[in-house]
Amino acid sequence: MNLRRLFVGLTCFLMVLLFQNCSAPFEISSEYSLSSSGREVAPVATPPATVGKTTVFMATGHMGRSVISCDQGRSWIRDHSIDDSVRCFGPSSNPQSRDCDHSQYAGRGVTESDGYFYINLGWGHAGPMLRTRDNLNFEDVAPGDWGNGIVAVGSRLITSHPPWSVSEDRGHTWIPRASSSGDTWAYDHQKIPFFKVGGKIFGGHGSQSLIVSSDGGLTWSDAGRPAGTDFSIRGFTAKDQQTFLMVGSSGSNPEHHYAAVTSNGGASWTQVELTSTAPEWGWSSLIYDGDKFMSWSNNKVLLSEDGLNWSVEPVRFTGNSIHLGQGKFAFDPVSHTFSGIIGWWGVWYEGQKAVRSTDGKTWIVLDADSFRGGHPINNMITAQVDRTVCN
Question: In the predicted model, what is the mean pLDDT of residues 113-122?
Fold first, then answer.
């Protein structure tokens, strides 16, 4: 018998026993090979798939809503909320209408750690923090404060409403702590998600500046910002460990939009005002796909390789089309897939749509069997988790 064939056969047999899968460990199966925010920044090179893992998109929002996709955004399943009968910001004549922005179930931060998703709720009121592996079974592990942002550093969880709280045991116990030399940073996760870059964590101090931690989120300091401006940050992402991009608008004139780039880890910034390429309805999720920065607004995609020079292209659709306004987007660097849930003020429930793309320019709108509109979505992340989560 050919020894090479014998070796390959034994290897495959062992792979079956270990993983129930004989595909090569660092390839995407042909079924999912495609041509084209706490959240790890995508490196320039496409990372390999992890044996026994799969990418899950999770979207979260008001009324404790959470919904997942296990198939690169082709369908969304296990749509969960505290109360499906509520209508956020509906007419006063509707007894089910609620101010979902200011309630114990207001959607705030979301992160993944050690195979668990953590969904932080509550604004103006202390809300639950829901821990789940599969978006079917939930535990409340809240530290007892308002929800706001949350980020994971290994097994450590940090939630960012003052006083910031830290958990080292998957949320079973929490230790309140000041975030920087006795100060309590007011952190607005709605505007600036946490990013982990090169051993550091970046977040937002309100909407006016960045903060950074180099010790796993235990202490924080000001990370700098473009000098001499009233830059109000609306998005932040990174190209690599030294090159970061901020986008936003003027605090005194919201019609003026800006981009600012650092190539030295935040020590200095170069800022440009965007005129003809400015987003007409503000910034949606800001993504770096390993090649360029991207954002979406008003049926257009904004593109930049360096964060300073931007171009605008109309989005296209395969099949049915919609108005691709503001929404929440996430990117899977393994399959190079974009997924988004579109919904801006008043456009939720029946008007809320889900889309997917392999290049960020041409989109497929999911049908009603693949996605059901619901409560407003505030966040979307991707995570590599055990394949059994989707069983």
Answer: 93
